[in-house]
Amino acid sequence: MTEFAQDNLKSNLDNPAAPSVLQWLPAAFLLGVVGIGAALAVTSKGARTFPVGQDVVTGQWMGTYEKNNLDPGVPWRDASVNLWGGLNYRAFGEAREGAVVGKDGWLFTSEEFQTDKTDAVEIAGKVAYIKQVRDDLAKDGAKLVVALIPAKARLYAEDLRAKVPGQTAPLYEAFREHLSKAGIPTPDLLAAMRAAKVQGNLFFHTDTHWTPLGAEVVAQVLAPVVKGLNPDLPAATYSASEKPPVQRSGDLLRYVPVPEGEGPAPDTVQEGVYSRTDDGGGGLLGDVTLAVTLVGTSYSAPSQNNIWHFDGALSKALGTEVLNAAQEGKGPIIPMREYLKSQERKHNPPQVVVWEIPERFLRTRY
Amino acid sequence: MVFSSNVFLFLFLPIFLIVYYLLPFRWRSGWILIGSYALYSWWRLDFLWLLAGVTLAAYFFALAIARSTGARRFQLLTIAVTLNLCALGYFKYANFGISSFNAALTGLGFAPFSWTPILLPIGLSFFIFHAISYLVDIYREEEPPTRNLLDFAAFIALFPHLIAGPVLKYNLLADQFRHRTYILEKFSYGATRFMTGFAKKVLIADTIAPLVTATFGQTNPTLFDSWLGALAYTLQLYFDFSGYSDMAIGLAAMMGFKFPENFNHPYISRSITEFWRRWHMSLSSWLREYLYIGLGGNRKGRVRTYINLALTMVLGGLWHGANWTFILWGTWHGGILALERRMKEAKLWQPSPAWLTIPGTMLLVILGWVMFRADSVADAFRMYRGMIGLNGVSLSDTLAWQVRPSELITMLIAAVLVYVAPVWGQRVGDVGSRLLRPGLAVAATMTLLPLFVLAIMKLSAQSYTPFLYFQF
């Protein structure tokens, strides 16, 4: 016999003890929520912005509209993210997916914890590509130096709550050895940064990136390695100063959406300022050739959020101006691919290319 | 378009309901058809022809079967069912068949057959099953064929059950297309069921989902990893699918329809036979009526009965997806069903206490779910190796950082709901039922309302999460 979902309604209607509020409240509540939600949704900018150039027949238009327009555009989206992110942080000490909460206000990107069975293949592919880049640059007489930036979770393992998977333990050294054996200078930045931890924080508590000090320490380690390749470096002198200390909320705080004061405290930072003090720099019609090019990620790229100024620190440490071809948000591979094909390289052939590669990107496919 | 989405809740549903209730009754089937086709087309417009084609074929073949006599009736039924199965076979199993064939070819040293993979239309298994059941019922003269194409098309496409069931027989709804009652209490009941299903899906199933993905993604899961994953999936699947069914039943009630129940506390079953009377009841019923009985049921002797039971479940497994994992899962359940029947007939099945039979049945169910969830048979056996401790015991560090306290707490709450709800004598989804003691019913409803709002906000805070049963 088939049991129907509302077989009990008849008896409910005949049940004088049944509370009458149940006859109307759920209907009124659902209609109210859906009605108010609909009014807010259809008047939102997201709902009234439509995808262009997407195919309706294959559902592309609908999928794009829902995912890229409506869902992020509903007026309660930010409130929802903050509510649930805040609840999870307060109740369980959890960040939203994408970050891992450490001790004493430290936050880490979950990229530094992720593992997959395809990691070995991906990492081997990266080694092979770096060798290919070395060969490609060598055709023009340029040499490659890799700046392998250790993972924040590796450098500050003592501030983690969750252990980084053991299979990643040998990654930094193993990758560096692969490159060193291939004749690609890859200085041990991990050892240098560990030694420099006494000077101050080399990574921000609340950001995926290094501090200005971290960038400077790495620049100091890289400079003798680059000079050791005997390039002809056009001289340039720089002065370094620091702006007054300010509070800075790092990118990882987005994963802990609680009001300031409830979550990890923002970092305090003194942004470095590197100014060229000689007469060089190209001038109006200057035909300056830069011997060193920096390629890399957001750890190097000139951007609004970049306060670490790795290019400035490297220029000062080398005593020469560095061409910065790093790009934000694309990982280390894509900026290099683009650089190799770029007019920048054609018009300003380098003698040395410093390729900044954060360890956290080694297993990520681009 | 999934029920737990902004586009359904805040665009489709209000427009559909407003127009539905403004229209006179005789136009409502047409509006249901338009709404359901619109909902289906939101996925892809170019597969609407398949839904419409299956509908038209079933409608006209049913009329022809009813007009025919003798062997001609059976011929027509055979053609109609074969056409439906061909559609199902082509879209759902062609990729699997070719890839299995190619694996055999390459194994023998031959070049593989060149093949462009086919896209699986969503809901295909469900609307094909609806069509077949209708055709068989007409053939069996259990009901007369409908001459109202609009009502029939609206039944096949009816959006609450179009994408993921429940699997319904036309005769269960035929009268309701001619006459439905619209009372506020029924709408309220539907709203309660919908909100309950929504909360089950978003607050419980979706919260546990990342843990399931993480555990089943382990290369060498330990004892702890694999059991955690298996238990998490056991709860996720229940709350995802029963949540969907609650939403379907609730939406139908809001439109004046009565749908059959699809779950009845399956995790308190004391045997696998009982489990299949409580889990996905509409599918079990369909398999029994149209497959098991079609194969001869228990009318052809003891051995054939066991074979029929096993075969029904193997085919039921294959219906869930074109993968060897589903075939093995069906074989597992079919084998146990046959064994239980044999033990019962041989009087080897002794009444046992619930504290023994419920965990025992759950163990069998959980072992089955591992195969059901795994991406491949090899992945499933990796989990099984973990479950018996062959990869170590303690939590893997590759998993440890991904296990969130909120997921574990949610699992605990889910388990409590699964086992406490039957004590109340009511379904988990039936919190608004006034068969509960009045105070408890009001308290449950008052708890549900803010949970629904929280679920909407969670939906907006998280990324897109389709229902698990959409893949079938």
TrEMBL record, chain A:
<protein>
    <recommendedName>
        <fullName>AlgX/AlgJ SGNH hydrolase-like domain-containing protein</fullName>
    </recommendedName>
</protein>
<keyword id="KW-1133">Transmembrane helix</keyword>
<feature type="transmembrane region" description="Helical">
    <location>
        <begin position="21"/>
        <end position="42"/>
    </location>
</feature>
<keyword id="KW-0574">Periplasm</keyword>
<dbReference type="GO" id="GO:0016740">
    <property type="term" value="F:transferase activity"/>
</dbReference>
<dbReference type="Pfam" id="PF16822">
    <property type="entry name" value="ALGX"/>
</dbReference>
<comment type="pathway">
    <text>Glycan biosynthesis; alginate biosynthesis.</text>
</comment>
<keyword id="KW-0812">Transmembrane</keyword>
<keyword id="KW-0808">Transferase</keyword>
<dbReference type="GO" id="GO:0042597">
    <property type="term" value="C:periplasmic space"/>
</dbReference>
<keyword id="KW-0732">Signal</keyword>
<dbReference type="GO" id="GO:0042121">
    <property type="term" value="P:alginic acid biosynthetic process"/>
</dbReference>
<dbReference type="InterPro" id="IPR031811">
    <property type="entry name" value="ALGX/ALGJ_SGNH-like"/>
</dbReference>
<keyword id="KW-0016">Alginate biosynthesis</keyword>
<keyword id="KW-0472">Membrane</keyword>
<feature type="domain" description="AlgX/AlgJ SGNH hydrolase-like">
    <location>
        <begin position="100"/>
        <end position="359"/>
    </location>
</feature>
From TrEMBL, chain B:
<keyword id="KW-1133">Transmembrane helix</keyword>
<dbReference type="InterPro" id="IPR004299">
    <property type="entry name" value="MBOAT_fam"/>
</dbReference>
<keyword id="KW-1003">Cell membrane</keyword>
<feature type="transmembrane region" description="Helical">
    <location>
        <begin position="148"/>
        <end position="168"/>
    </location>
</feature>
<dbReference type="GO" id="GO:0016746">
    <property type="term" value="F:acyltransferase activity"/>
</dbReference>
<dbReference type="Pfam" id="PF03062">
    <property type="entry name" value="MBOAT"/>
</dbReference>
<feature type="transmembrane region" description="Helical">
    <location>
        <begin position="408"/>
        <end position="424"/>
    </location>
</feature>
<dbReference type="InterPro" id="IPR028362">
    <property type="entry name" value="AlgI"/>
</dbReference>
<dbReference type="InterPro" id="IPR051085">
    <property type="entry name" value="MB_O-acyltransferase"/>
</dbReference>
<keyword id="KW-0812">Transmembrane</keyword>
<keyword id="KW-0012">Acyltransferase</keyword>
<dbReference type="GO" id="GO:0005886">
    <property type="term" value="C:plasma membrane"/>
</dbReference>
<protein>
    <submittedName>
        <fullName>Membrane-bound O-acyltransferase family protein</fullName>
    </submittedName>
</protein>
<feature type="transmembrane region" description="Helical">
    <location>
        <begin position="47"/>
        <end position="67"/>
    </location>
</feature>
<feature type="transmembrane region" description="Helical">
    <location>
        <begin position="113"/>
        <end position="136"/>
    </location>
</feature>
<dbReference type="InterPro" id="IPR024194">
    <property type="entry name" value="Ac/AlaTfrase_AlgI/DltB"/>
</dbReference>
<feature type="transmembrane region" description="Helical">
    <location>
        <begin position="309"/>
        <end position="332"/>
    </location>
</feature>
<feature type="transmembrane region" description="Helical">
    <location>
        <begin position="7"/>
        <end position="27"/>
    </location>
</feature>
<dbReference type="GO" id="GO:0042121">
    <property type="term" value="P:alginic acid biosynthetic process"/>
</dbReference>
<feature type="transmembrane region" description="Helical">
    <location>
        <begin position="352"/>
        <end position="372"/>
    </location>
</feature>
<feature type="transmembrane region" description="Helical">
    <location>
        <begin position="74"/>
        <end position="93"/>
    </location>
</feature>
<keyword id="KW-0472">Membrane</keyword>
